[in-house]
Write a structure and sequence with these properties.
Blueprint lengths: L11 E4 L5 E2 L5 E4 L10 H17 L8 E13 L2 E8 L1 H22 L14 E2 L1 E4 L5 H4 L10 H8 L3 H18 L4 H10 L1 E6 L8 H9 L7 H9 L15 H19 L2 H7 L2 H4 L7 H9 L11 H18 L3 H27 L1 H13 L5 H7 L5 H16 L12 H17 L9 H10 L2 E5 L10 H16 L4 E2 L7 E2 L5 H14 L9 H8 L18 H4 L5 E5 H5 L6 H10 L8 H7 L15 H15 L10
Parallel strand pairs: 3-5, 3-7, 4-8
Antiparallel strand pairs: 1-8, 2-6, 4-5, 9-12, 10-11
Length: 646
């Protein structure tokens, strides 16, 4: 590209005035068809003018301040022998500035020709730029026509009717004209617009996607310009650091040190096991492509209530920067360096503390639960509460917060469908890992949140909430499981097709039962088994109670819907067997150990780890349920005292 294309660096702050050239040297911007048309309203341009006037008042006490218009994303291109800057993002602001420049030229024209008959300016300002739209004419063709719309309703209507974009041009132009006509010092406003109003100039790297894809991703919030990139650019400006602040640390050393630390933190945060420990999108409400931006948000107090203010955090850093410049930073490079170090130390100190929590599994488990279930606490608030306490004191503080989080939960809320049931099971599974003597035992917040994102978690009945009669396929699968459980051996095929099976059995009683099970396994497809054969199987010593009701034959549905009959189970596993019986669920859950994430408490239930005496290995009995419930109460007792239901 030739010298007519500005050689700004990516993420430079570029004043409006630096884009304005004499007509013969105008910058040519190009807006492609994939972008929507111009859609600013009168209200928006009036707000911009108010903002610039208010900023101009503030400049009286800080002559080095500037007003930031946010990003202008461009890339040099050539079309039909003309060099352009393709506008990937920012055409709304770029067009609005052009309209304001035309309004200012119109008001100047009126001032210079107040005794003349002609009321409107029908040319172009000497200093401007041109915008070519792929779907309409150059701005240099429609811009001069706007003056007529101020003084003729007919001309306004004609211009307005041409297309939707022209309608917005006319609306914004007329609104800006009325607003600026009563501005006290128009020359001062013009100076503010040209000299102290800046775009953030952004050039995508050569390896980036096609421009239309960049535009789509920008507007979907999937790539920068995000607050993290902009804050990084603000901190690492060379002008912030003196050439030699001291004998040991040069300007390049300071910039490089922060840049390397920034990149190291960003890489570390892309480890999901760390990220999902410290961040809950469910409670925080914001999503991050650049995860270090979360730490920047925390430093500046951005919450989900401010999520519509995309550049809230960058603007907060920018305001702090301006204040520092006002307080002597303009003339004293050491003040600028001190400001940079102070801002960065705030981010790095929080990250270092988070890593300390992450590496200590007792702090890790407690902080992870609080982040997920108590929205009143974030990392910044916990930072203020915990240091410089020793480990025991920090754990005590965190335990107090957990008690406060679950203090309102009572046993009458621990029924199917209540959110409290999931919260208690979540805490219970975390504490099971925390109580283990194995130093590497850790609840996986990353796996837990990935399951929630993919399929979700179910409050799953252990004993089915309804009687279940296994279908033909389930009968055969169950027969294999029961044979292996009773004999310790899997049935083996006796024919090449694998249609007939046998099993080695020594005990006579086991042999009789296995014959009945083999009759299920070896039956032809579609062949009906006599009902008495099934009843004989389920009346054996292995199934002394009513198997189809999982030995809950005397309890009502309310008791079956209580926590002692529930576990957390990922929906994908649950959907594979529906409302099936305990042994089918048990077989599937234990078989899926290496395929899907199952919390330790869920596995313990299906392994009957809580039962002192196993009455029925193939059923979830009332004895099992009570033992499970007693363990829940015991583990959670330091935080919440749960009572038996009546």
């Amino acid at each position: 590209m030739n010298e007519s294309i500005p050689q700004f660096n990516s993420l430079d702050l570029v004043s409006v005035g630096s884009l304005l050239r004499e007509k013969k040297e105008w910058l040519n911007f190009y807006v492609p068809a994939y972008q929507r048309g111009y859609r600013w309203s009168a209200e928006q341009v009036e707000q911009l003018i108010d903002d610039l006037e208010e900023f101009n008042t503030r400049r009286e006490t800080n002559r080095d301040a500037f007003y930031c218009l946010q990003p202008l994303v461009v890339r040099p291109i050539e079309k039909d022998g003309t060099e352009y800057l393709e506008v990937i993002d920012g055409q709304q602001r770029l067009t609005t500035i052009l309209l304001l420049l035309q309004v200012l030229r119109q008001l100047q024209f009126e001032d210079e020709n107040e005794d003349e008959d002609k009321k409107y300016f029908s040319s172009l300002p000497r200093y401007a730029y041109d915008i070519k739209y792929e779907t309409r004419k150059h701005s240099s063709e429609w811009l001069p026509q706007l003056g007529e719309t101020l003084f003729s309703a007919e001309k306004y209507a004609h211009f307005d009717d041409q297309n939707c974009d022209y309608s917005h041009f006319a609306e914004v132009f007329n609104a800006a004209y009325k607003k600026l006509k009563v501005v006290h010092d128009l020359d001062d406003f013009k100076k503010t617009l040209r000299k102290y109003t800046y775009f953030i100039w952004y050039l995508p790297s050569e390896g980036d996607d096609k421009n239309v894809e960049i535009f789509d991703r920008l507007n979907a919030g999937k790539i920068g310009l995000n607050n993290a990139e902009l804050v990084k650019a603000l901190l690492l400006q060379r002008s912030n650091v003196p050439a030699a602040h001291n004998a040991e640390l040069s300007e390049r050393d300071v910039i490089q040190k922060i840049a390397l630390e920034w990149d190291a933190i960003e890489r570390r945060l892309h480890d999901d096991s760390l990220w999902d420990f410290i961040y809950s999108e469910a409670s925080h409400g914001l999503a991050y492509e650049s995860r270090i931006e979360y730490f920047l948000d925390l430093q500046k107090g951005k919450t989900d209530k401010l999520k519509e203010k995309h550049y809230f955090t960058f603007n907060a850093y920018l305001d702090s920067y301006r204040q520092m410049m006002k307080n002597g930073g303009y003339r004293d490079p050491a003040k600028r360096l001190e400001w940079v170090k102070q801002q960065w130390d705030g981010i790095k100190n929080l990250f270092d503390l988070v890593m300390e929590w992450y590496e200590n599994r007792h702090l890790y488990h407690r902080v992870g639960f609080i982040i997920e279930y108590n929205s009143a606490y974030d990392l910044k608030k916990l930072q203020a509460l915990l240091p410089p306490l020793n480990q025991g004191e920090r754990i005590a503080k965190l335990d107090d917060i957990i008690r406060d989080t679950v203090k309102g939960i009572q046993s009458n809320k621990l029924f199917h469908g209540h959110k409290e049931l999931s919260e208690i099971l979540f805490l219970y599974n975390i504490l099971l890992e925390d109580r283990r003597h194995n130093d590497t035992a850790r609840f996986s917040f990353a796996d837990y949140k990935q399951v929630r994102k993919d399929k979700g978690w179910d409050q799953e009945h252990v004993a089915s909430s309804h009687d279940h009669e296994p279908d033909e396929k389930e009968q055969k699968e169950l027969a294999v499981d029961l044979i292996e459980l009773i004999t310790g051996n899997k049935p083996i095929p006796v024919d090449d097709e694998g249609m007939k099976y046998k099993v080695d059995v020594e005990d006579k009683e086991e042999e009789d039962l296995c014959e009945q099970l083999l009759s299920i396994l070896n039956k032809e497809d579609g062949e009906e088994l006599p009902k008495e054969k099934l009843e004989k199987i389920f009346k054996s010593k292995y199934f002394e109670d009513n198997f189809s009701e999982n030995t809950f034959e005397t309890v009502d549905k309310r008791e079956k819907d209580f926590i002692w009959n529930f576990v957390l189970l990922n929906s994908s596993t649950n959907s594979s067997y529906g409302n099936n019986s305990f042994p089918v669920k048990r077989r599937r859950i234990l078989a899926d150990e290496f395929e899907v994430y199952t919390p330790v408490g869920t596995r313990n239930v299906f392994e009957k780890a809580y039962s002192r005496k196993i009455e029925h290995f193939m059923a979830w009995t009332r004895t099992d349920a009570k033992a499970y419930w007693e363990d829940i109460k015991r583990v959670l007792n330091p935080y919440v005292q749960l009572k038996d239901i009546k």
